[in-house]
Backbone:
């Protein structure tokens, strides 16, 4: 679409935003047909469209990724042993990423099994979940220096958790959108091995219904830093921002200790959260 045609249907400011998004996508290596759909990386929130798949692929056994895997915005969905979309624990993922791997331009359809597993540092770039199964992605690295990055993309229809942080290190989520969910990010509350976890959430669109943006374990020293969080359709402010728990390694349900900013574990100010 030309800039002139775009102006007929959108405000000039929205055109500028779209150009910025496409430029950012090119910097990430998203080119060709994939660029057309990168308008979904904008901050339009509830007004955004979700990507249209360029094709589909049934996955009957986990796809192992080392290096970079570019899905070309195909839709991948589970079949056979991966044909479940329940909340049962212990399901296998559609994709399993080795330490340092990159997964980009992928749509995960339904059944989604257990989405994506990262065994160490990883990058998920322009990855979309249409109907989250057990979890959308789980981060399982054991090193305190592990870096997990979720750039762009989005997820919806998650009965419970979207991003499950079981391992050690730092998880950074930016330019993401989530709707109809339980928790966007949860630091594991009862894993047999626990770690200090650092979570950074920035430039996120959250659309109701949902329960909580992030949950952390203060007794293990977890922190969550939030900025540019836009919450849509929640005028009564039912979605909790940052929930503090006392976690354990015994498998018991963790106990909630409080919610909201406290300056130590949940780090943000009122200006970092907007309701639209």
Residues:
């Amino acid at each position: 679409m030309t800039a002139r045609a775009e102006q007929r249907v959108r405000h000039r400011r929205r055109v500028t935003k779209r150009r910025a998004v496409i430029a950012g996508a090119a910097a990430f290596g998203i080119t060709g047909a994939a660029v057309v759909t990168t308008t979904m990386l904008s901050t339009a929130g509830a007004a955004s469209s979700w990507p249209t798949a360029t094709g589909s692929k049934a996955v009957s056994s986990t796809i192992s990724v080392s290096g970079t895997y570019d899905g070309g915005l195909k839709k991948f969905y589970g079949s056979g042993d991966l044909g479940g979309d329940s909340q049962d624990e212990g399901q296998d993922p559609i994709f399993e990423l080795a330490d340092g791997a990159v997964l980009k331009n992928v749509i995960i359809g339904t059944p989604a099994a257990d989405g994506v597993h990262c065994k160490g540092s990883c990058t998920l770039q322009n990855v979309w979940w249409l109907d989250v199964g057990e979890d959308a992605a789980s981060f399982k690295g054991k090193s305190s220096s592990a870096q997990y990055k979720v750039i762009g993309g989005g997820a919806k229809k998650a009965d419970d958790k979207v991003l499950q942080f079981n391992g050690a290190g730092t998880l950074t989520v930016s330019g993401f959108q989530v709707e109809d969910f339980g928790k966007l990010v949860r630091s594991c509350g009862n894993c047999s091995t626990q770690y200090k976890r650092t979570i950074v959430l920035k430039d996120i669109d959250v659309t109701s219904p949902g329960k909580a943006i992030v949950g952390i374990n203060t007794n293990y020293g977890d922190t969550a830093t939030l900025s540019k969080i836009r919450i849509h359709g929640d005028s009564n402010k039912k979605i909790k921002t940052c929930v503090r728990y006392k976690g354990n390694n015994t498998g018991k349900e963790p106990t909630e200790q409080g919610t909201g900013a406290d300056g130590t574990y949940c780090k943000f100010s009122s200006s970092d959260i907007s309701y639209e």
Confidence is low (pLDDT under 50) at residues 1-47.
